[in-house]
Amino acid sequence: QSVLTQPPSVSAAPGQKVTISCSGSSSNIGNNYVSWYQQLPGTAPKLLIYDNNKRPSGIPDRFSGSKSGTSATLGITGLQTGDEADYYCGTWDSSLSSGPYVFGTGTKITVL
Amino acid sequence: EVQVVESGGGLVQPGRSLRLSCTASGFTFGDYALSWVRQAPGKGLEWVGFIRSKAYGGTTEYAASVKGRFTISRDDSKSIAYLQMDSLKTEDTDVYYCTRGQYGDGYYIDVWGKGTTVTVSS
Q1: Which of A50, A56, A99 lies closest to B64 in CB terms?
Q2: A44, B113: Cβ pair inside 8 Å?
Q3: What's the rounded Cα separation, in Å, for the pair B101 and A63?
Q4: pLDDT digits (tens, 9 = 90+) for B19-58
Q5: Distance in angstroms (rounded) separating the CA atoms of residues B2 and B112
Q6: How far is B65 from chain A (nearest CA, A)?
Q7: Within 10 A of A5 (CB to CB), how many other CB atoms are there?
Q8: Which chain A residue is nearest to residue B41, measuring alpha carbons?
Q9: Which chain B residues contact residue A105 at CB under 8 A?
Q10: How buried is B56 (Cβ within 10 angstroms: 0-12 exposed, 13-18 middle, 19+ buried)?
């Protein structure tokens, strides 16, 4: 059971904007930086966002990240069919109930 | 090209051991933390553990679910990291990814391998 909660699924039409929330606590998101990962069907995850809101080279600016308090948000604008994937947040966690690094429960984006 | 490649997966009986390897190329292996992440079929990601670079003491951290059973080590001279899995359980059946860790303002994973499948079954 992950300590970071995400909605199981989000859907929208092509061209629309979607946001995915990642809810945690002071032991993780509240005091650490958040990263986001995209996992296309049948492939390994890929880094999308790091340090809350930074994009690695090659990631389009349609993808954005933000953090406020104990929650983080991934935003995707101009949704494309190629964005259909599972998305995970990740961050450091200082509690003893999990590992030092934790992932969110994951959100599947469906493009209608 | 920066990459990590896992090997060593397979079918193993409950209670037995298995060692996975992660071979890196395209970067200075010794400068980076290496972590293992696993994923059950159709399920989410679970961080297993990591080993810091020698510059940060080469120490390890583990998820509570594997602590005491799994051991991560590294051989910087060969650019290989290992995941020794002992006392395996059926619930350890997963795809295991080797990943490279980065430190920016925070820690994140910037390189993922394609994964190797471990099946624990009698």
Answers
A1: A99
A2: yes
A3: 21
A4: 999 999 999 999 999 999 999 999 999 999 999 999 999 9
A5: 10
A6: 7
A7: 16
A8: A42
A9: 44
A10: exposed
